[in-house]
Amino acid sequence: MSAPGRTDLPGRTHLPVEVISKIAGQAALEARGIGAGAGGFLGMGSKGNFGARPQAKAEVFGRAVVLRLELGVRFGEPIESTLSAARTHITERVETLTGLSVRQVDVSITWVHQDREDHKKNSHKGKELR
User: Fold this and answer.
1) Which one of 22, 23, 69, 80 has the minimum C-beta count within 10 Å?
2) For 86, how many CA atoms within 13 A lie in the half-sphere containing its CB?
3) pLDDT tens for residues 3-22?
4) How many domains does the chain have?
5) Which branch of life, at top level (predicted)?
6) Are 65 and 20 in contact (CB under 8 A)?
7) pTM for this predicted structure
């Protein structure tokens, strides 16, 4: 017979900002219509990737967190509602997984991706807007 797990044991938990940043980036990847920049060398030839984790940085102030993310969106998606849903998802995931309180989620849109099929239909030049 095993004893139930105790939750009243003393001890400290250290959660590095790098870990919080990765959690935020992974949560952003889970959000619909959000992607990351990928590839390229020294910023040249890079492209959007909806399978890569977006870059995220966390700042911790006591038990409060401020997040900053760089990400891309699909062309044609309403940016305001896409980011609102992403912010909500990121906040919920970071708070659930870390126990910290997210106070702010700042987002920089670094690219907009147009699907190849849309590109053919609309005859715009380039598949990615920067």
Assistant:
1) 80
2) 31
3) 566 677 888 888 999 999 99
4) 1
5) Bacteria
6) yes
7) 0.77
For 31-63, how does the pLDDT look when each residue is reduced to its tens digit (9 = 90+)?
A: 998 988 655 554 445 567 788 889 999 999 999
Q: Does residue 1 belong to any structural domain of this protein?
A: no
In a domain, 3, yes or no: no
How far apart, in Å, are the Cα atoms of 44 and each of 36, 47, 55, 71, 114? 15, 9, 17, 17, 19
Assign residue 85 the CATH number of its domain: 3.30.70.1350
Q: Which two tokens stand for residue 46?
A: 């890079």
Report whether 79 contacts 109 (CB < 8 A): yes
Query: Looking at the domain assignment, is residue 4 inside a domain?
Result: no
The pairing of strands 101-113 and 64-74 is: parallel
Q: Which domain holds residue 37?
A: 17-129
